[in-house]
Specification:
about 350 residues; alpha/beta; Rossmann fold; UDP-galactose 4-epimerase, domain 1; 2 domains; eight-stranded parallel β-sheet; two-stranded parallel sheet; 14 helices
Length: about 350
């Protein structure tokens, strides 16, 4: 086993937002590398309990990152490494409910940092967002030294706020923080829904034989990153000393056109309904996304290995295996924003 995986043996880790797509896959990976205990902390507002891997050393605590009583419960277990994945996700949701976004992503992150410091946690890994931090005018590929103050959604603002709080706790208290920035993560574990990402929603609609709605021209690109590659990057971030105090992109380093994504999902699911083009959402100001992963390679040996078509196929297989649970959990409500309503098929 790689040295960075051996590091986790017999350790207790806390994963906030651990019932989500990345959190649940991180939980499973942590068990596989031999942790003593994984504490999954989630309020299940945007996730489901059935998505949490069932192992004897996995403890689920339903709770809120803004609630001191809940936080005292999980930090009483003395977790050594904190993976702070919990968030009010994501752009359109934050536009519709900006106060909730600030409360969870701002106050929640601040509280988890404070409890991590008080409990003498060895490391705090904050799930940041490369799709947020860089703004809409950054040159490609996106590199860590470029940041923008001209952001287009409350979610983007509060992800930057989380990084700034991490910097404060690092500089003022000496807390060992790491700030990996995610890019369009996808894979098994992400339940489709009104405020979810494009890939699970496309798969869900394609399996129902529906036309896939593309916001824009379809020539827009994203840097889609398979969840197992993201998880490997997180485990590395928790181990390597070189990661402390650093921000770095966890991405695939490759661009994929949205029209190519839609056509691939339609092909793999046998959906004959094709695509339709709808107006872009107001906050969606980025035509193309492509991240540089040079810094992550240098600092932690990050090396994404999953080919895009392979990752999509694995995600579709997960949908097939969990179809009944997904059917019960999926929700596309009317929402507040007309852009959301226009987006739904």
């Amino acid at each position: 086993m790689d040295e960075y995986k051996n590091y986790y043996k017999d350790k207790t880790i806390l994963i906030t937002g651990g019932a989500g797509a990345i959190g649940s896959n991180l939980t499973r990976a942590a068990v596989e590398v031999g942790v003593k205990m994984v504490i999954v902390f989630d309020d299940l507002s945007a996730s489901e309990k059935w998505n949490i891997p069932s192992f004897s050393n996995v403890i689920f605590v339903k709770g809120d990152v803004t609630n001191d009583i809940d936080l005292k419960r999980v930090f009483n277990e003395k977790p050594e490494i904190i993976f702070h994945m919990a968030a009010f996700f994501a752009n359109q949701n934050s536009v519709d409910y900006p106060e909730n976004d600030l409360w969870v992503n701002g106050i929640g992150t601040l509280k988890v940092l404070e409890y991590s410091r008080l409990s003498n946690a060895k490391k705090f890994i904050f799930a940041s967002s490369g799709c947020s931090i860089y703004g809409s005018n950054a040159p490609l590929p996106l590199r860590e030294e470029f940041m923008s103050m001209n952001l287009s959604s409350p979610y983007q603002i509060t992800k930057m706020l989380g990084e700034l709080y991490c910097n404060f706790f690092s500089n003022h208290y000496g807390l060992q923080v790491v700030k990996p920035r995610f890019f369009n993560s996808y894979g098994p574990g992400e339940i489709p829904g009104q405020y979810r990402n494009v890939i699970p929603n496309f798969i869900y609609w394609a399996k129902q034989g529906k036309t896939l709605p593309i916001t824009g021209t379809g020539e827009e690109t994203r840097d889609f990153t398979y969840v197992e590659d993201v998880v490997d990057g997180l485990l590395r971030a928790g181990y390597f000393k070189e990661s402390v105090g650093q921000e770095f992109n966890l991405a695939s380093g490759k661009e994929t056109k949205i029209i190519d994504l839609a056509n691939l999902i339609n092909k793999l699911t046998g959906n004959q309904a094709g695509v339709k083009f709808v107006s872009r959402r107001k906050w969606d100001t980025k035509n193309c996304l492509l991240a540089s992963i040079d810094k992550a390679k240098k600092l932690i040996g990050y090396n994404p290995k999953t080919y895009f078509e392979e990752g999509i196929q694995k995600t579709i297989e997960w949908f097939d295996q969990n179809s009944e649970n997904i059917k019960k959990s999926v929700h596309f409500g009317p929402g507040v924003s007309s852009a959301v309503r226009d987006f739904l098929p």
